[in-house]
Amino acid sequence: MKIKTKYLLLNIFIILSIIIILAVSFWSAYQINALERTISTGFNLIAETRSVHNLLKDLIFDMFMPQMYNLLKDLTYSPSTTSLLNAWIDQNDKYRTSLYRFLNSNELKPLLSDPELKEKYDAALSITGKTFDQIEELKKGFKNLQEKGLLGDEKLYFKLQSSEDYSMQQLFNQLRNANYYITFTFESYMNYFIKSLQAQSDRIQQSIIFIFLIVVAAVGGMIVLGSYMISRQMTKNLGVVRQSIQILSQGDFTSRLSVNSADEFDELLTNMNALVIRLKNNINSVLTLMHKVGMSINFDLKQMDLIGLVCHTILDETKIDGILFIRINEAGGSFTITKTYGDIPSSGRGNLKGDRKIKNSIIETVLAEKNPIIMDPSLSSNGKALPGIDFSRIKSAMVLPVLQEHEVTGVLILLTLGEHEPLNDLDHFKLQTFSEYAALLVDNYTKYAELLKKKEAEYMALQFQVQPHFLYNILNNLIGLNRKGDTKRLEETVFALKDMMRYTTQRDAWTTVSREFEFLQQYLRVQKTRFGEKLSFKIECEDTTRDYKIPKLLLQPIVENAVIHGIEPLKAGGMVSVSSKHVDMQQKEFLEIIITDNGPGFVYDRLPSGNGIGLRNVRERIEHVFPKAILSIEGDNGTGTAFSLKIRIKDLQK
């Protein structure tokens, strides 16, 4: 449930509670007023009882003591006997009507739930009936006197006493009973009943007030409880949101939090989780872009090919529809749209080819700021910046500088068309990050290409250093044979030299292990023409190693050192051995090339000055092409020399 819905329901509940409290208040006031009116009516009836009784007394005095009452009439301005009788009858009728209305009233009935009070009510009702029966009999007696003309007779009392008329004789009993019921029984019992009624009313009023307080307390408690529950849930949800933000600020894009409250907090966390996913996907997409470009790079690429690779990767991995590559001309005052990729909307009113002035164009801003900028297509809709492009179809555009040596050498303009959503901030961040990577890639690639050319020149210089030294030794050998007049071996050596020269003069700087071993075999045959039986050699190439590529003439200086420093000092014959094999070491595979001789042995670091040029050449060349190769030379006096070169298989090519 939404928070605003919760507060709306709470406010509705508060309003309804106020209405209920007001209703209970009005009902309580009404009930209390009804009770007070009922009690007041009861006391008024008691007063009316006394009024009826007083009128009856006046009537009796007027009837039986006319002389004295006539004297008093002048002082009290009392009405005549007939008027008193009529007034008494009227008062009785009114009193009877009021009394029965009171006894049968709706206000009185709810008070009779108490059994004791109900019993008193029934007794009062019975006495009331008897009282009015007596009054009715008395009224008949007065009517009889009035019809006989005895009202106002001074001797009425004596006439009634001596009358033989039974109805006349009963008048005194009727007067006595009526006075008794009105004065002693009815009034006193009604007074007792009214007081009991008042006590019951007080109890009911206390109950009403108690109920009112209970209702107010219950409603107030429910309002406080509802507010507390909503506040508690909001505080708990705020804690979860704070925790989610804290986790996100720490760079954790894997945690997902939820509150399961189906309110704005749940919606907020859902959006935050979606944002985290988008951020993670955005970062992953940048890494994917970089990985895809990195995996596609090779050393044969030119700068324009590299830029094309970056552009195609952007088109494949983002929602960019078209890309323009703009080259800044060397003069610095103009630019040229060199290449377009993807869908570039054409206006048909201009040509994308040709030079354009930098001034008053988007390129001028990029050159000044050297940072990616967001281009508003509407600013270029006049076609001045990029003529020939239909900007009405472009939804959004971003301009990325291509830096080299901290200078803008080119610009990439990325376009999204009207069919797609415009670029958002995440898209801008991703493309800006990738543009910086691409610019750094182009810059580093250029620098690396220059460094690679320099390294290659250094390597070729080392390789060319081997050839004069190698030819010098062979030519010395030929001169020696010529002086001896050994034309047969001289001829064999010349033909062997021809084959070796063909091998060394080939343009390829790399060769296979098997071809290098064949060259070494020819070289040792040439050396054997010089040393004769003093030199023996053995060359073994393991089949699994034959096709691995190594630098040309890498091993010849080592073999030459083995012959010169190992075999030549010997008085007896010596052996030079060359072999290759696969070896496993520290869970890695290596190609190992071993060259040994059984000469007197030597320590490479202790060679006299001017010697060991070939070995140093080999070491430097190995460091150039196989920086992680393991090179070792072991030689002690009398035990010969062993040269070992281990190259990781994954660094080799076939």
**Major sheet:** 6 strands, antiparallel
Helical content class: 55-70%
Number of helices: 15
Beta-strand fraction estimate: 5-15%
Q: What average pLDDT do the residues reach?
A: 76
User: In total, how many beta strands?
Assistant: 13
Shape: rod-shaped
Short structural summary:
The protein is of the alpha+beta class and 654 residues long. It is built from 15 helices and 13 strands. The protein has helices at residues 3-64, 66-76, 81-103, 115-147, 156-162, 166-169, 171-249, 264-296, 303-317, 362-369, 425-484, 487-505, 513-531, 556-567, 613-625, and strands at residues 322-328, 334-342, 355-357, 373-375, 394-404, 407-417, 510-512, 535-541, 549-551, 574-585, 588-597, 630-636, 640-648.
What does this structure look like?
- It is rod-shaped and about 210 Å long.
- The longest helix is centred in the N-terminal third of the chain and has 79 residues, at 171-249.
- Helix content is 61%, strand content 15%.
- Helix 4 packs antiparallel against helix 7.
- A six-stranded antiparallel β-sheet has the order 3-2-1-6-5-4, sandwiched between helices. A five-stranded mixed β-sheet has the order 8-10-11-13-12, with helices on one face.
- It is built from 15 helices and 13 strands.
- A hairpin with a 5-residue loop joins strand 1 (322-328) and strand 2 (334-342).
- It has helices at residues 3-64, 66-76, 81-103, 115-147, 156-162, 166-169, 171-249, 264-296, 303-317, 362-369, 425-484, 487-505, 513-531, 556-567, 613-625, and strands at 322-328, 334-342, 355-357, 373-375, 394-404, 407-417, 510-512, 535-541, 549-551, 574-585, 588-597, 630-636, 640-648.
